[in-house]
Amino acid sequence: MPEENIKTRDFGNIYRLIYEKKQCSRQQIAEELGISLPTITHNLALLKEQELIYTSGTFNSTGGRKANMFRCVPNARYALGIDITRNHLSIVLINLNLDIIDRERTRCAFEDTSAYYENLQKKVEQFLNNQNLDTDRLLGIGISLPAIIESDQKTVFYATVISLLGNFYERISSCFPYPYLLFNDASSAGLAESWHANFDRPMLYLSLSNSVGGAFLNNGKIFPGANSHSSEFGHMCIVPHGKKCYCGCYGCLDAYCCAKVLSDFTGGNLAEFFKELSSGNPGYRRVFDDYLDYLAIAVNNLRMCYDCDVIIGGTVGSFMSDYLKDLRQKAIKLNPFEKSGNYILCCHYRTEASAVGAAAHYVDKFIKGM
To answer: Which of 25, 73, 169, 205 could form a disulfide with 190 if both were Cys (CB 3.0 to 4.6 A apart)?
Structure first.
């Protein structure tokens, strides 16, 4: 194998190891990758030269000289995430650590019109200008949508929450001078949660927003299903012949556990609903108990099917930490095998999880492509 190819392979392998481990010494790299210390030193110098890693200090001595500690530079690259919903537009900038550098959320009703896309373009340009960053370091833009997206990440297969034409990807091409792709909102949020928590085991993300969706992930990777339609949890039937769902079917989880079920009591303001709930309003408590009953059925069904942790996310998930015990107790009563509901967890990203996950695609691509 030519020497240049060996160098390129080692360059990427060393960088990925430091990224995965958070910090590494030369000796640790040698033990993990089985390459010589001179080769490691050469590639570490190249990585430093390209401002991808830095020396962050030394490890505690176990005898002899203290080993240098190498870390990745988080802001060596950036990615932009955009979350388009029925009534809001969110923009986030993340670094290689998936840290949110900045965010912006505005009320902006979606319309499949040239005026909407011109406004989107202006908002993105203004947002990036405010960051004063080197746009050569921007990896790309991930766009999160409440829609089923085909595996090419460009084709909208199904969209009813917002009305999208089939050529949506092409229609927004003039908005961005950067690479961009489309992503399902719930799958993106699940990816962000999995990566942040460094989940190396199966996990399930249940998104409870103005529509209900989710994602099944294993070792940080989304399982898309045979037709890219996996994890449409909002459309599993929990009440036969029950309430009509926006999809046209009856008894879907979405009809019982979307955020609107709660926020409709407070004029669309979900935060106000939970404020009233925490104040002890008995009417709101009854409404929420009913909500938790249906949610517990869904969570238990998912536990029976997947046998993994269930992360409660979406806009409702951001308020669930104070009520997690209640949900767990209801789920336990439905589970014939377990006496603990500790597999039910609250989301880390209380806001903009979908935008972060969409942007994370480009971070993942960058790391794997080193």
So the answer is: 205
